[in-house]
Each structure stands twice: as structure tokens, then as C-alpha cells.
Amino acid sequence: MAFGIYFYSQWNINATFLLLISVVFNYTLARYLTSLSEEKKKVVFVFAISTNILYLGVFKYFIFLWDLFSDLRIGFGFAELLWKPEILLPIGISFYTFHNISYLIEVYDERILPCKNFFTFAIYDLFFPLLLLGPIERPGNLIPQIESEQTITREKIWNGISLLIWGVFIKSTIADPLSRYVEIHAPSFISLEQGILWIVAPVIAFQVYADFFGYSLCAMGLAEMMGFQLMNNFKRPFFASNPSLFWSKWHISLSTWLRDYVYIKLGGNRHGFLRENLNLMIVWFLAGIWHGAGYGFVIWGVYLGLCLVFYRCLKYYGIVKETNLIQAFLGVFFTFYSFSLGLLLFRIQSPGETMLILENLSHLPKVSSIPLMILITILPLFLFDLWQEWKDTDRPNFYITSKPFSFLFLFFLFFLWFSLFSPFGKQDFFYFQF
């Protein structure tokens, strides 16, 4: 717990007090729930969930709603609002708020008992490897590990070290150079080379993947060295042959959270095909605004929902057959590119920029615009995922304990690649903004 507080306080001490208030509030309300009658229990539960959502909403969405209100005023001919509030967005607020909501839901549904020991819950909520960017760990997985005595073995230490090294490597040597390429070639959607977004989009996809996958590996590695096992957040998503499969492999902790606590609560697929697709659209609208407060995130969520609904319609009417190898191969390409193009929406600052994106994509890029250096940069990550896909691993695995000399050789190659290609510059994690 102390490590988590110290770790978070290095960013902002005021936000640390807000985090601690959230910890005390959710611990207290969860304990209180178990002592109430069913009717009062429901009232307190709704209050607890609403408070968490309001807490997230004030810090993350109030400025966006203020700007939206200002835009509407201008649209109706009123004067622009001259004053604008300044609210600090606490880092990782989306992750630890969802962490708390899942805990309250699990306690309310009586799937788990509330923590009797405050420090047990505080460690769950402030576990520093996942405090900033997740994964959004389930209480039923992490709390029992905190309550039981953890044995730190040689195998866990070596596995943790290998995950940590690989995570740092793909963040610094793959994600950061790709980020610099994107900022140089697409700083905005104005005055771009025609068709360049066909190239920039997949570069952004690999940048975000290497960045977030890198952090997740570091979190898993640090936790494993302490004897804990966190859930795997990525499972070779760019080899997925359809959107449904992709979202079972990308940001798994968020997609399963939305599935279990939103999609299923809305009825899931239990009320017919039309209602099922409506539920999907609601889920992905929420996924969009969870990622950020802005026009682009709302459009992104709707876009992803439509991609999923379109695929499910093709499957429902028998147009797509999963056993067809050619369709599966084409599915990998179209799934990757539909996701990549969707990430362009993250960068939209106003609805009008959507037309600039579509106009640029109406042209084909020049072959000379495809940079060889970018292909070289993503090669280690692609080969690693290909190897893991061939091994069909559930979690990233270097088989370090059975093949230590192979790992040492691989570590040497990582070091050499890092020395040659790392930009050696500080670049914040992409998901810090969420």
C-alpha cells in the first residue's frame, strides 16, 4: 500500500489525497452493504455506484460538457463563454474507478465477501504495478492473492524479469519511435500528403499496441517478481480474423469488464438479435467515452460498435463462414485495418475533422511514402507475436527457466537493437491520458 501511495504521489500529491478518499469511501460502503436489508442494500449500492461515476465524470468529462455547452451557445447565436474552469485530470482515474465499481458489484451480487481488513482492500486498490494503466484486475483474482501468503520462487523472478525487459524494450524501442513518426507526418489533419493516412493509421495501431502492451508486460513482470499473477491484457490481437475475436484479445481487462458489468446486465444476447446489437452499440458508446472526453472518442466508440454489428450481421445471414481459410486471411487484414483507421478518430478535436480524414483516405498513398525504417522497427514485436501464436500461449512466455541460455542470447539481441534504434528520449505512455 505504501509503495502505491508513494508511486502515485510522485505525479501529484493533491490527486493522491483524492485517490485515498476514493479508497476509504469504497471500503466503507462495501462493508456497510452486508449489514443492510435487501431494500436498503439496493439504495446504498446505487448511491455508491453513482458516486463513483460522478467522481469520474467531474474530473474527466466536466470540461468536455462545458465546451459542448459553449459550442451549442455559439450555434444558437449566443456569445461565446469567456470563462472556462480548470480541472486537473488525475492520472489513471478511469482505471481505478472501474476497479472500485467492479469490487462493489461483486460484493453486492454476493460473489465475494467485502474485505474485513482495510489494508487488504487498500493494497488491492493501490497495487502499484497496475495503479496507473491497469489491467483492471478483478477482485476475485487479486484479493485472494493478497490475503494468502505469496511464495517468491526462482521461476517467478525470472519470468517477471523477462516480462519487464520485454515491456521496456517494446515501449522504448518500438512505441516511442513510431510516436515520433506519427507526430511528424500527421501533426494535424490539415495539409497532409494525399493518402498518407493509409500509412499513418497502421503505424498508430502498432504504436498504441507496443505502448500499452509494453506497460501491461511491465505490470505483469513486477507483480510476478513479488509472487502475484495479474491477468493478461493482450493476446496477439493483430492476428484476429474478425472484430469479435479482436476484442477478446485487445485490452482484455476492459473488454471483459464491459461484457460482464454492462453488456450482460443489459440483457446480452438473451432478447433477440436486434436487442443484442443495440446492447453492443450502448457498450461501445460507453467504451468510447471511457477512453476520453472529446468528439473523437464518441465517434470512435460508435464506429467500433458499427464494425461489430456489421460483422455480426454478415455472420448471422451466413455471408461470413469462419471455416473458410481465405475469408479468415482476408478477415485478419480487414480487422486490422478497420481498427487502425478507427484510431485516427482519437486525434479528432472537432467533428469537422472527420471530413478531412475521409478526404485524405479517398486517395491512394505513394509507394515511396512507405518507410522501410517503420517496417524494421515493428519487426521484433511482429516476430514475437508470431512465435507466441505458433506456441498458442495464454500468456507471454519466454520459456526462460527451461532455456536460460536462449534467453541470454535473446537479451543480448534486445540490448543491441535498443542501442541502435532507441530514441533515448522520454515519451509518456499513450494511455496516461485516459
From TrEMBL:
The protein's matches in Pfam families, at most eight in alphabetical order, are given as: MBOAT (PF03062)
A single GO BP term for this record reads: alginic acid biosynthetic process
The UniProt entry lists the main location of this chain as membrane
Task: Give the stretches traversing the membrane.
Answer: 12-33, 45-66, 87-105, 117-136, 195-223, 326-348, 368-387, 407-425
Membrane topology according to the record: Multi-pass membrane protein
Question: Cell membrane as a keyword?
Answer: yes
> GO terms for molecular function, please?
acyltransferase activity
Q: Which branch of life, at top level?
A: Bacteria
Q: Where in the cell is it found?
A: Cell membrane
> What keywords would UniProt list here?
Acyltransferase, Cell membrane, Membrane, Transferase, Transmembrane, Transmembrane helix
Listed GO CC annotations: plasma membrane
Entry similarity comment: Belongs to the membrane-bound acyltransferase family.
Protein name as annotated: MBOAT family protein
